[in-house]
Design brief:
Radius of gyration: 23 Å
CATH architecture of the domain at 28-85: Beta Barrel
Strand content: 25-35%
CATH class of the domain at 28-85: Mainly Beta
Shape: elongated
Strand order of the largest sheet: 1-2-3
Number of helices: 2
Distance between the termini: 83 Å
Helix content: 10-25%
Structural class: alpha+beta
């Protein structure tokens, strides 16, 4: 048999602090590029990057198109470009 219970109003969480849309979805925000892979097709090459998103484990990473990720999230690729330039300048001095 069910009993009537009185809820504790101090345990209610205000919904305006949570960033959930009306459709109960949220946007995954990528934080790091883990790997890069180039697939060779008959007439072109397609570059993909393995992206780690916030609130995900490494096992849940996804492969995304590198061009799209560079357009939407250029800050993820800035450190790679700086590292490549440093390597190229080191090789040119040798």
């Amino acid at each position: 048999m069910l009993k009537k219970s009185m809820g504790d109003p101090s345990l209610i969480i205000p919904t305006e602090n949570i960033g959930i849309k009306d459709s109960l979805s949220y946007e995954e925000i990528p934080v790091q590029v883990l790997d890069r892979h180039v697939r060779k097709l008959r007439t072109k090459e397609v570059a993909s990057v393995k992206v780690l998103s916030r609130n995900q484990f490494v096992e849940e990473t996804t492969w995304e198109a590198e061009e799209d990720m560079k357009k939407r999230y250029p800050h993820l690729f800035e450190s790679e470009e700086n590292a490549d330039q440093g390597t190229n300048s080191l090789l040119s001095t040798l």
